[in-house]
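User: ok so my PI wants both of these folded by tonight, can you help

Assistant: No problem, let's get them done. Here's the first:
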Amino acid sequence: MLPGRGLSLGRAMVGCGTQPTLTIQSKNLKKYLLNTKLIPTESPMLKNLQMNSTDRLIINVMEAVDLEEVRILHNDDSTLEWLTDPTHVSPLMQEQWYQEISLSSTSQRYIARLKKDQTFVGVFRIDRMDLRNSSAIVGADVVPELRRQGMATEMFKYFLDYLFKGCGLNRLGLETLAINTGAIKMYKQLGFKQEGQLRKAIFRKNMFQELILMGLLREEWSDIQ
């Protein structure tokens, strides 16, 4: 699995608006969606958020200049152990993946950097974007040296607001290994609920592990704000 291509197990979307700092090829995407009649002309899916930052982070669509930092994060053993496919990625594989995801209408990657010095923090993934059913799969990876500092939570809160309020989605889902207790605790604090379990679905740490399915609805997110 190429960087950020699958689900992070403890871990993407198209831009919902035409705001340059948040969406990639958003005008082309809007034209495509309208031409294929997947959404009405005035769909709430095309609304923008007004900011692309949090208290500590700047959020932007992944660009070519970010690729090597993203690849290094992906290839870190402490990241790979939580991914569905723990395959190391070469620079060529990364470039091929980037070309594919840049054209995707169902997946997107966003980069988070520290406001104070532009230090690379991590990647937020949106996958399986389904406008007809108003849903997507989400997740995030943070560089090892900045973990356990609330960065992932800050990224998630920003994107939950973006996807539920800015894009009007109804449901967000994710999948994580049952042994990734730290991530599960964070997801529950954000309001995600366990919806199912795939028994012995992922081979990791020399044994088959359970895969936990979690979901969050727009009204549930609104209730905890």
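One down. Here's the second:
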Amino acid sequence: MFEESKFVKKQKEAMACTMTGEPYQPVRLYYQIKQKNALLGRFKRLRCIDFAPTKNCWVWLYHEEAKKLKFTKSYGELPKEYRPIILGYLRVKNESELLVDVRSFQRGIQAILFFDQKINRRLARLEKMRIVNKLFPASISQSEMWGHHREFFEEREVVNPQEKVKELLKIAEEQEERKRKELLESHSNSPRWRSRSGIGDGEIEIAIASGQYSIKL
């Protein structure tokens, strides 16, 4: 199997891309484990999943059952000497949490669909998906790529943009109450107000309803 952090496209691209051609963006899927032993047994039966002792985790390979997955560059377009490449890393954190780390948004979506078919939801159920809301230059180093999932999803505080906006609006409302009263008094005959809000959501949540996945940006 091939670890693609050794391969970063540096020809004409201004941004880092995966070997399957998508822009490099760390993504993490969070699963709630229902039956750990049964889940591990399912991993062992899938030929596209293997255990990597040096990393102490399972790896999801572009191989066997996963060969039909479509990316910007599909399986047949990859150099034979690089097959099978690693699509993602599966880490069983404890009895109830499984983390799936991949390196592009497209892989995240494919992982959701693939594991929904191959792993029964009674064994593990998707809770949410998070993505780093930025692109990276092609000059990124292997060591940086290796540390990104830990850096962005464990060491940095995750902010829910909608909740943060509500908090800031509440603070602004309290601070501006006195000014608004003064403004109302001075313009009591023709008060005019304007409010604008632009929200950029850096986190992707997966809402699960009626057995279906929907992505909310």
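The first strand starts at residue 27 and ends at 33. Residues 161-186 form the longest helix (26 residues). Good luck tonight!
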